[in-house]
Amino acid sequence: MSTASSLIDEQRFPQLASLMRTQYERTPAHRNYLETRFSHASAEDFTTLEELASQIRQIAGPRLGEICDGYDFICKIVREEEIFFRRKGRYRLQTFEEANRLVYSDTEYMGRYMDGLLLTQIYWSNHTACYQFYRNVFLKQAPASYDYLEIGPGHGLLIYQALKDERSGSVKGWDVSKASIGQTWDALTVMGMSGKKPELVLQDLYAVPDDSAKFDCLTFSEVLEHLEDPKGALVKLRSLLKPAGRLFVNVPINSPAPDHLYLLRSPEEAVDAVRAAGFEIERAEFFPMTNHTMEQARKHKLTISACIIARPN
Amino acid sequence: MDKQADIVVRLQTIFREELDLPNLQISSHSTPDDVDGWDSLATIRIVAAVEREFDREFEAAQIESIRSVGDLISMIAV
């Protein structure tokens, strides 16, 4: 069988087509699922996917094949957590100490996990939709010369959008992991920094002093579910915003993974959690798991990504 | 009804519910390639429902090796 996608126009979307060829060569078992995913993509989606594929191929460099193997790895470990979730109705781990001991401290495991996560931006439609919402709604409506902070910038794809936005002022990223900061820095270096100097620092959100600088835009994407004290984090985020500042939260519902601690059982629970921390909701959108409708996702307790834009009330 | 036929009937109810395909007809030869929506995560949901229905718990390696309805029948019938 050809390893080319039958749904991607190689002339218009060469980066995406090439990526999928590599993925299908390395892991043919994922072909049906991913081709079904692309069969639901709109013309706008394909434009976004081509941009993401270009960025991911830059970040990957000569490691693209290895990163495609990382996608297979992440699917395997998610399946392991999924069976636990279906049997017990909860996530396996409860504390940050457990996650640190069993997951974060295992460098080799984390490397493969992060590689796989990078590709989910393209392969999982809810992840792509969150990226589009962040860029087209959250960043687009930011004020001129906005001060931007992302907590946990990870693969760097979101902070890169702020960095290359000619309307952005200062761009900062905080993380509790030195390795993650290095990864973000490397990603921004290969993608280009548009003549700006992002400030990436080791900083624990919970330890930020109250008189810290305030921001117009705060990005908190796929972090909340990793925390033992999500409420405390949201309250802290509120204190980091300027009076008219805006918070972008992206958090998955019913999404078992080896390092997920905070289980939200509906998108409404996520919205309520943000509201309870002293925010008013500007806009919230929910995106169901790849190849499923929202109705199916709610009925079967499948993963839904909740994207919320909020302001301090 | 023999034991295998009984298992297939009960499995069919589970497949219809988990995949939202009320008219689905399965046989021991059915595979993910010929059942809409049967991906690897759906397999997990189906297995969890099978475990509840048949009061069994399967090993991770058994679950990973499922390639057809026949594989599930074999696991249940042991």
TrEMBL record, chain A:
Keywords: Methyltransferase, Transferase. GO terms for molecular function: methyltransferase activity. The keyword Transferase applies. GO terms for biological process: methylation. InterPro entries: SAM-dependent_MTases_sf. This is Methyltransferase domain-containing protein. The lineage of its organism: Bacteria, Pseudomonadati, Pseudomonadota, Alphaproteobacteria, Hyphomicrobiales.
From TrEMBL, chain B:
SUPFAM superfamilies: ACP-like. Residues 5-78 form the Carrier domain. InterPro entries: ACP-like_sf, PP-bd_ACP. This is Acyl carrier protein. Pfam families: PP-binding.
